[in-house]
Amino acid sequence: MKRLVKRTKGLIKGAPTAVLVSIGIHAAILLLAGGMVVFTVVKKMEQKFEPPPPVERKTVELKKPKVKVKKRARPKASQRISSRNIQGMSNIQLPETSRISEGLGGGVGGFEMMPDPADMSLFGGKSSLSIGNDFEGTFYALTLDRSGKRNSQSVGDEYYREIGRFLDSGWNPRSFSMYYRAPQKLYTTFFYIPMTASEFVPRSFGIPDEVYTLNWMAHYKGKFAAKESGTYRFWGRGENVCVIRVNGEVVLTGGHVLAAALMSDWRGSAEEHRKYWRGHGPMGVGDWFELEAGVPADFEIVFGDTGGAWTQCTVTIQKKGEIYPKNRDGAPILPVFRTAEIPQHLIDEITYSMIEGEADLTGGQLFNVY
Predict the structure, then answer these.
(1) pLDDT per residue as tens digits for the range 57-86
(2) Residue 240 preceded by cis peptide, ω within 30
(3) Residue 73, by phi and psi: left (phi above 0), alpha (psi -120 to 50) or beta?
(4) In the chain, what are the domains?
(5) What's the predicted TM-score (pTM) here?
(6) For 305-314, what is the mean pLDDT?
(7) What is the dihedral of CA 270, 275, 279, 281, to 10 degrees?
């Protein structure tokens, strides 16, 4: 028994030594092979990335397309458009389109800019400030022929008779075809010109001072409408001439008594006619006429001067049954006939020249159509 025990001593009890040696060898081989695999993998991961070679692409030359464009003709300048069917909203006025290609003073998009009320004189502005509500004025120089040369027309009685022929013709401008007519027209919304130097009128129409315009006449026409139905009449004074007609009928001749007698058969029948003074002479008081609210009526006025000293044209309007304050002479202080508010700089100019209480420059209704 002792001998048997000695034989069993070794590395592992009960296992042959050869087997153990074999296991150790195989373990060593496995370790060596694993190390080689790990080394190889690491080596492969450490390789640097090389980008693929660039691909050659064929370049194609782009040609600029040729498009035939027709040359646009320059638009022709259009004439002044004055519509009386455009309604003014909150006193916003629409610009006119007199020269599409040029515009006025830096017009935008071919349209003229809105006229500045500050450019308006007592005789009007060169452009409409209130389309459809203004009166267009034309100036005639009776001392010049139609080509602008001085003629032999005398002052005084002959001047009044010549205007009388115009009135008898139905206020037809052709009756003045032998006289010079200013190309520039003026546009106004009221008529209240206190006593002022006569030369300011032709100057406002663009006629130079050196041109001989001793005898002249201005003719304005347009439409007006009352806000309230009723019976109305004009009070007016002209130096030397002021004649008004409504819907083709003369309703007032105000000015020198001699002028009225030579120009027209109209005679004032009102008790107040030529009773109160305004400026250098008495006011004419016209005939009553009916107006229906919102219904337009034709309005025309001529005023002028002979002798070249002073001129005046003041027109106020009265509604029958209306109570008005009175001035120190007992005359009613009537509102100025107007279709739009008078610009403030002109109110200041009129106030400076007029006698207090002659007229109301801001009160009363506006007789605008639109």
Answers:
(1) 555 555 555 545 444 444 444 444 444 443
(2) yes
(3) beta
(4) 117-353 (2.60.120.380)
(5) 0.69
(6) 89
(7) 90
